[in-house]
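Hello forum,

I keep getting stuck at the same step: I have a sequence, I want structure tokens, and every attempt I make locally crashes halfway through. Rather than fight my setup again tonight, could one of you with a working pipeline run this one for me? It's a single chain of 242 residues.
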Amino acid sequence: MISQRQKQAHKSSESIEVFYGIDKIINAIIDFVNGSKHRYDVYADSKGPLYVTKIEALRKAYIKFVSRGGQIRFITEITRENLSYCKEVMKLVELRHIEGIRGIVRINEIEYQSNLAVLETKLATILLRSTLKRAVELQQNAFDTLWEKAIPAEHRIKEIEIEQEAEGSKSKEPHNTIQLWTNHDQDEYAIRLGGKSDLLVATTHNTQYTILIDESEYIPELEYDWQYTMMHWIENVSCRES
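Reply #2:
Ran it on my machine without issues. Output:
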């Protein structure tokens, strides 16, 4: 049976602290990592993976914790901008993705931390640390709920890479034809890519080109001087018609 003295001792060990300044905050985070027994959980906005990889003391603390058998579960928003950092972090943590996540929170067996304000040029300005058992339990429940909803990092990374590959293929895809158009009076001319409405070059842009008069295979070298291409094309068409 727990005595009254033991209850008081346990209660006095529970505390809430607030840290200001980047150095104190980083030290508090390192202490958190070193004080974790078997596991700890983190959810952070899209800048979180960058901090882990770029802040050397934090990265070393992660490596040391994992090397002694610790497990880290990490939730963040995986984007194109932080993709390389996420891949680095995945070497140390089990990573999952949730869109639109904000702030930074850490929970281990006995402690809860929250970065209350995050700046572009700093890790944070304020860090809240609590060892209140009830606070730790509530934050752990919140994290576990997010973890179940989050998708594995591998799936999200694959999505991004497929999107990038498709965009890259699209940008490299050659246009099949170029077209020479004229207006109703047939005294102005313009060139368009086949199937496109935008004009590559025109004798004037203040007219409507409604008559297609010729079409040719697209040759990438032609785009270096569309004006010359158009004038030469007009001459060829005129010669054929005369």
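Residues 177-241 form one domain. If your local run keeps crashing, start a new thread with the error log.
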